[in-house]
Amino acid sequence: MNPIIRFENVTKRFGALTVLDNFNFEVQRGEKVTLIGPSGSGKSTVLRILMTLEPFQDGHLELDGTSYHEPNGRGPFKASEKHLHKIRCSVGMVFQSFNLFPHMTVLRNVVEAPVAVLKMKRDEAESRAIELLRMVGLSDKKDQFPSQLSGGQQQRVAIARALAMRPRVLLFDEPTSALDPQLVGEVLGVIRDLAHEHDLTMLLVTHEMRFAREVSDRVCFFDKGRIVEQGDPERFFSNPQQPRTREFLSSILGDQEPVRESLRCAL
Amino acid sequence: MMYGYAWDTSTPLTFALSILPILGIGLMVTLKAAAVGYAIALVFGLVLALLRRSRIKAISWTVACFTEFVRDTPLLVQLFFLYYVLPEFGIILPAFMTGALALGLQYSAYTSEVYRGGINAVPRGQWEAATALNLSRLQTYRDIVVPQMIPRIVPALGNYLVSMLKETPVLSVVTVLDMLGLANMIGERTFDYLVPLSMVGLIFLPMTLICSALIFAIERALPKSGIPLR
Ligand SMILES: Nc1ncnc2c1ncn2[C@@H]1O[C@H](COP(=O)(O)OP(=O)(O)OP(=O)(O)O)[C@@H](O)[C@H]1O
Ligand SMILES: [Mg+2]
Q1: With an 8 Å Cβ cutoff, is B73 touching chain A?
Q2: Cα dihedral sign for A256, A257, A263, A266?
Q3: Closest to A34 measured CA to CA, from A252, A241, A201
């Protein structure tokens, strides 16, 4: 079967800084992939390119068989607005800083895009939104404004909002990094439930190693815009091959004592 | 005698009271000019701000030059320009419309800067969330950006309403009979400028005060996070 995401020799530069250099990466349909790696290694950039928030300069990127660049595409994205619109129909994203719309109620946040973009009827969109909010455990908050919610609740709304667009690929960029430690669990719980969705392809950037190990089919270690090592989580965490991976894991696991414990048990 | 009202110059007080109805007619013209001018400034200013963000360089550049030019030249010059030069191109507008248009254009340049600041102040994450949800550019502005910038720009837009109101008398130089124009005429005929001109000043004072108070009240009443337009 064809991969749903295929980066082929993608090069991404910010001015003189080359963040991705001939980057190759594939994700299968329904696969749950975690990206880990040091700060500045290009993890967010990969997600942002997929979400069409950043253009890339060279190479080829496909989503479900559709190329991001058009043959005669113009502008930084080398594609028309219409083409980008079509690509975005299959992709959703959850941000580190939630980015809920502060002037809209929780319900309105979830309903906005299905009504505006998918042309769904408002009452239909609302009943679906309530369904999604129930799924993330927040149906009682539907008439609140984002500022009235905790960070963990806001992030769960953001997940419901992304799901309302029925994406086939869902991107998470450090969804729990902005949260107080005691709120991380509730968000991870929601993502864990989502990981059971068979058809949903998930790309997750996170520093929560135990969680990565638990939910993902594959872990990719990024360094300097390259995937240094990847593999199924059991093998990856218990027996990393590359020195760079070991170094990274020991540095990050130093901060996550329980994880180190659980890894030791696995060894 | 003017508009059917005679003046009584026996004492300054009777004079003042007797010309009050005449000045009242001028006041309506002043208010109408300010209203039309402000409406133009609010709408056209937003158009300018949006065009200035256009991805097409030729458009954003032209608009940038236009706003800079208008901002940096006196209103009076633009007023004369519209009043005397437009007719040479066959565009003949009533003096009132010319005046209101000049006010509107001048203040569009100001308000466009206010809008621009307001748009830039909307966090990048909001734009990115809108893109991730596949909202079009128009939908992003209408549903996300403009509603959030409204509470931020009300104070500055309000200040411009007050200063525009105070600048309306400039229209009298192109024969618009606003308050100042009428006061001037009364002065010419009675050889007493002190009373009519003082009256004009006295009428402006409460008007601008009321305006400022209104704007402050609106500012307080608006939710800080923004107001959905739909
Ligand atoms: N808009 C931008 N302009 C210039 N440079 C950028 C921009 N965005 C990212 N970069 C640079 O690109 C590199 C990769 O950034 P990226 O955000 O993808 O890293 P990351 O792996 O997500 O790191 P982190 O863990 O800190 O989020 C960094 O060196 C960063 O400074
Ligand atoms: Mg990042």
Answers
A1: no
A2: negative
A3: A201
Residue nearest (by alpha carbon) to ligand 1 atom 12: A19
| The model's pTM | 0.88
Residues A36-56: tens digit of each pLDDT: 999 999 999 999 999 999 999
CATH of the domain at B37: 1.10.3720.10
- A interface test, pick of B122, B134, B139 with most A CB neighbours within 10 Å: B134
B199 in a structural domain: no
Is A113 in Cβ contact with B135 (below 8 Å)? yes
- Pocket of ligand 1 contains residue A48 by CB under 6 Å: no
Pairing of strands A169-173, A91-94: parallel
- Position B21 in a domain: no
- Tell me the per-residue pLDDT of B90-99, one tens digit each, with 9 for 90 and over: 888 899 999 9
Q: Which-ligand-closest: CA of A40? A: 1
Cross-chain CB nearest to B126 (options A89, A92, A99): A99
Domain count, chain B: 1
Q: Please choose, from the candidates A165, A140, A170, A168, the residue with its C-alpha nearest in 3D space to the C-alpha of residue A153.
A: A140
Collect all residues with Cβ–Cβ distance below 8 Å to A18 and sequence separation of at least 6: A11, A12, A225
Is residue B230 in some structural domain?
no
3-state secondary structure of A89: coil
- Within a domain: residue B198? no
The ipTM, to two decimals, is: 0.92
